Amino acid sequence: MAGAGGVSLLGFGPCGSHALAGTSFRHYPFDPVVPTNFRQKLFVPVAEGPFGVLDVVGPLALRASAASFTILHGRPSPFLLYQTELAGKAYQNPILRIESGARLAVRLDNALAEPTIIHWHGVDAPAAMDGHPSTAIATGGRYEYDFVVRNRGGTYWYHTHAHKLTSKQAYNGLASFFLVEDDDQRRLNKALDLQLGVTDLPLVIQDKQFDAQGRLRYRPNAQESMMGWLGDIVLANLTPNASLAVTPRTYRLRLLNGSNARIYRLAFVNGRARLNFTVIGTDGGLIERPESATEAFLSPGERLDVLLDAGQAKTGADIFLRSLAFDPMENEGAAEGMAAMAGMAGMAGMAGMAGMGAASGPAKGGAKDSMGSSRLPQGAEFNVLKLSVTAGARVVANLPATLSQVALIRSEGAIERKIDLSMDKMRFLINGRSFNMDEIAFEVKRGAVEVWRIANPAIGMPHPMHLHGFSFQVLERMGSPPWLAATARFSGGRTVVDLGWKDTVLVWPGETVRVAIDFAHDHPGSQTYVFHCHNLEHADAGMMINYRVQA
Ligand code: C2O
Ligand code: CU
Ligand code: CU
User: Fold this and answer.
1) Does 132 contact ligand 1 (Cβ within 6 A)?
2) Going by C-beta distance under 8 Å and a sequence separation of 6 or more, which residues neighbour residue 295?
3) What is the pLDDT of residue 29?
4) pLDDT tens string 311-322
5) N or C of the chain: less Cβ packing under 10 Å?
6) Is there an atom of ligand 1 within 6 Å of 532 CB?
7) Across 168-276, where does the E strand assignment appear?
8) Dihedral of CA 228/236/121/499: which sign?
9) What is the number of alpha carbons within 13 Å of residue 155 lying toward its C-beta?
10) Atom number, ligand 1, closest to the C-alpha of residue 122
11) C-beta of 121 in contact with ligand 1 (< 6 A)
12) Rounded to whole angstroms, how far apart are CA atoms 510 and 27?
């Protein structure tokens, strides 16, 4: 059994010596800016082992445990994993696949040295089954989940949610996919002849730091706790510099941003040309019609389901899934915020924060300690995955004109609730509050439709705001930065990632995003859920509130 022994995801090819320490970023072997580095075979989930696809047809027992896992240099690194054995197979962080309407019965055992709990991200669960941080279990503890998964087919995920520990535990491994199947999903995959694990690929994108021994590093300083932890090695399915051979046909990529704080501006690039791709789904499953796009932002917690026709490029060509450069909008904003705060509160110890968010270059000035430890600033351009187009029959996909039905939430006349994001004393707040486990920020009426106006001040930074308990629909983006507004092709200033059912929405500085939520559900009694920023350092620092659905 895999147990606490070593789990190896990949046998690594040639990767030189561990040149991380003391070498310039542009030359260490996993520098994701250098296209020729992309030679590690992308890890693709199979039927068992790490990220094995596990069809949920009966009760499961997951163990949150420490294990070692091999990512870099073939060297084992301490990792946290959900482990299980079923029908003679061992799984680590299994990709759970379940039919819409089926029962999820999971026994979680905490074999960690600290509290933990599982949250089913985007899944409609009663509060007691949702992994609210107040339900975290201590070392040796057990939690029993048992509820019916009513979500539409789609790409969801599960991860740890123990308050103040979520960022560290998720970064160290406690997260995987939760795929819900339904007729829409089957119809699509049949029409396009897609097969999970072959041409339909769950792809989690993460950024991590490693030390000179190839071990995961997570040591946020004050500034990194405030802004969010960034890695400088970019992993696709835990593969750095990932590469996949493809044939000239259509692939489905179920993109998940599983990073703590990094935002990706994703595009497919062939040489200098940006390729078209097709967005077919967002957080809560398929959208109504396929939408063509050339780029999309993906913030922590969000999913984007896309089709890429690899036959757009010639045989022998390399297509890169790339994160394009963008203005992270945390430079002036945070600096001004800090200045305002220093002025107001007369805070001491501001000197070290002067370089905060100065993301214009990895080694600007000598302010190294006051800056992030990542050599890849937020907004930098880098590659995520190389797709090498190999010879094969050209298959041109016939996209269905309709993918699914998305019933619009009728929000005319709904009450509008103000959700104001702000910052005080180096912490980000929601409606002026920092998370208090026992405090309910507000109540909503069961069955009511509300419109939340999530407002981010111009002097802030981007926040991916995530709702537990319900999915929502994005109605409108107001005050968007001009470069974002330029990509808004849908009513209300929305971009392609705002379509369909959402549970996480990125709110840029200066923006007010209006979302419609229908608080109808069948879970009996009153239900307390959280609403929080999915920048995990922000959430752990208290950028989270409780809200209660009345009985
Ligand atoms: Cu994925 Cu409360 O989060
Ligand atoms: Cu969630
Ligand atoms: Cu945030």
Assistant:
1) no
2) 265, 266, 267, 274, 324, 487
3) 78
4) 999 999 999 999
5) N
6) yes
7) 175-181, 200-210, 216-217, 233-236, 239-240, 242-246, 250-257, 264-270, 273-275
8) positive
9) 26
10) 1
11) yes
12) 37
Distance 157 CA to ligand 1 centre (A): 9
- Residue-level pLDDT at 8: 58
- Ranges of beta strands (E only) in 431-524 are 440-444, 449-455, 463-467, 472-478, 504-507, 512-518
Separation of alpha carbons 305 and 420, rounded Å: 30
pLDDT of the residue at 294: 98
Instruction: For residue 18, give the 3-state DSSP assignment.
Output: coil
Q: Which residue has 């879970």 as its token pair?
A: 523
Residues forming a β-bridge with 476: 514
- Residue 432, classed as helix, strand or coil, is coil
**Token reading at 260:** 């703590």
Residues lower than pLDDT 50 in the chain: 1-5, 10-24, 332-333, 336, 341-370
| Rg of the chain (C-alpha set) | 22
pLDDT at 362: 34
Q: What is the pLDDT of residue 21?
A: 34
Indicate which residue's Cα is closest to atom 1 of ligand 1. 121
- Write down the pLDDT at residue 76: 85
| Nearest bound ligand to the CA of residue 303 | 1
Q: Which residues pair with 67 in a beta bridge?
A: 79
Check if the beta carbon of residue 286 is closer than 8 Å to that of residue 154. Answer: yes
Contacts of 352 (CB under 8 A, 6+ apart): 222, 223, 369, 370
